[in-house]
Amino acid sequence: MKVPTSESQQSRVLIQLRDLILKGAFDPGERLAEIPLAERLQASRTPVRLALATLEYEGLIEAMPSGGYRMRGFTTQEVSEAIQTRGVLEGYALRLLAEKGVSKRLSRLLHECLELGDQAVNKPQMDLDDYALYVEMNTRLHELILEGCGNRTVLRMMEMLNGQPFAAPSAMLPMQSSLEAGTRSMQQAHHQHHAMVHAIERGQGARAQALGEEHVEIARMNVEYATQDPELAAKVLPGIRLVTGTGG
């Protein structure tokens, strides 16, 4: 039996809250209070508080002048542009890293991430703990790539971009009509992780850049499909009502 650590408990709460947001559990402008959320998720207030801070950083909620947080609204164009911009930045970072060369230490850390990801996705169906492990691994792997590229401008731009809805690497769970479909989506994304690391270790700058730009397409297309296909949106992502085509 797996015993959850405080870090994995925080990741679980973050995933659950993000999933509630995507399913439309909260209206734009609705206040998100720690105690009711902790009771709803059967968690303590500390991981809820930390998760809310992360969600604000990701641009999904916003701080209130009187304290606490509330849901924010955003447009499909805003989401798509943010995700695509992240792909451009990360693709460039991958190219820089491939061309400058990967140190033995960085290579070891990247492979540790890949191994953790393999543990999470290489099964018929992932559970919540697997998703939490994957999110932690995914965040770490992308951080290592950005830090390793050595370009401070890219890092500053990514910091700004991470405050846009769904732009952060871990800001959105894969859209899924079933747990099996969600697992397949994660497996595809992690296969791309392997390809990206393979390319940078072999100094294949152009290939690494192309892989980085392609990698974000899973997240971008999930949002695009949900907004264009009402039946899919209703079945898979009811919370897409938070994302409008006009403003908000």
How would you characterize the overall build of this protein?
With 248 residues, the protein is mostly helical. The chain has 2 domains: 7-72, Winged helix-like DNA-binding domain superfamily/Winged helix DNA-binding domain (Arc Repressor Mutant, subunit A); 76-229, Up-down Bundle (Four Helix Bundle (Hemerythrin (Met), subunit A)). The chain is 67% helix and 5% strand. The protein is built from 11 helices and 5 strands. It has helices at residues 6-22, 34-41, 45-57, 76-100, 104-121, 128-149, 152-161, 179-201, 205-215, 217-228, 230-236; strands spanning 31-32, 61-63, 69-71, 74-75, 243-244. The strands form 2 sheets. It has a 3-stranded antiparallel sheet with strand order 1-3-2. The longest helix is centred in the middle third of the chain and has 25 residues, at 76-100. It is globular, with a radius of gyration of 18 Å.
Please outline what is shown here.
This protein has 248 residues and is mostly helical. The chain has eleven helices and five strands.
What class would the helix/strand composition place it in?
mainly alpha
Query: Radius of gyration, rounded?
Result: 18 Å
Compute the number of strand runs: 5
Instruction: Tell me the strand percentage band.
Output: under 5%
Note the main sheet.
3 strands, antiparallel
Shape: globular
* CATH superfamily placement of the largest domain: GntR ligand-binding domain-like
For this structure, the CATH topology of the largest domain is Four Helix Bundle (Hemerythrin (Met), subunit A)
Percent of residues in helices: 55-70%
The domain count comes to: 2
Compute the number of helices: 11
Low-confidence stretches: 232-248
CATH C-level class of the largest domain: Mainly Alpha
CATH architecture assignment of the largest domain = Up-down Bundle
Sketch the topology as an H/E string, one letter per element.
HEHHEEEHHHHHHHHE
Report mean pLDDT, rounded to a whole number: 83
Q: First CA to last CA: what distance?
A: 45 Å
Neighbour order of strands in the largest sheet: 1-3-2
